[in-house]
Design brief:
Elements (H helix, E strand, L loop, with lengths): L2 E5 L2 E4 L4 E8 L8 E6 L6 E6 L6 E3 L7 E6 L4 E6 L8 E7 L2 E2 L3 E6 L1
Parallel strand pairs: 2-11
Antiparallel strand pairs: 1-3, 3-8, 4-5, 4-9, 5-6, 7-8, 9-10, 9-11
Length: 112
């Protein structure tokens, strides 16, 4: 099975930036679409961004469009989420997803 390990979360001021990483393992990891989700306290998990394995096409939630960028480095089996112009409402636990496998999540906290 694919295994995912996330890193890069932390505390940042509004308007600042963070870069999340999701390192994957597994012999077929390269062939999968990768996604980021987030879950804020008291809310359901929501889609953030996705990137395809085939052509690198990206998709974003409307709430992060223009501020977040998803990318991947297949040689390193790693997916990134560059988050710029962060807002307090971006505060959540961020999870990477590959097919039916989820990372453990990394906390992002944005202060006013």
């Amino acid at each position: 099975q694919v295994q995912l390990v996330e890193s890069g979360g932390g505390l940042v001021q509004a308007g600042g930036s963070l870069r999340l990483s999701c390192a994957g393992s597994g012999r077929t990891f390269r062939s999968y679409n990768m996604r980021w989700f987030r879950q804020a306290p008291g809310k359901e998990r929501e889609f953030v961004a996705a990137i395809s394995w085939s052509d690198g096409s990206t998709y974003y939630a409307e709430s992060v469009e223009g501020r977040f960028t998803i990318s991947r480095d297949n040689a390193k089996n790693t997916v990134y989420l560059q988050m710029n112009s962060l807002k307090p409402e971006d505060t959540a636990v961020y999870y990477c997803n590959c097919a039916q496998t989820w990372g453990q999540g990394t906390q992002v906290t944005v202060s006013s």
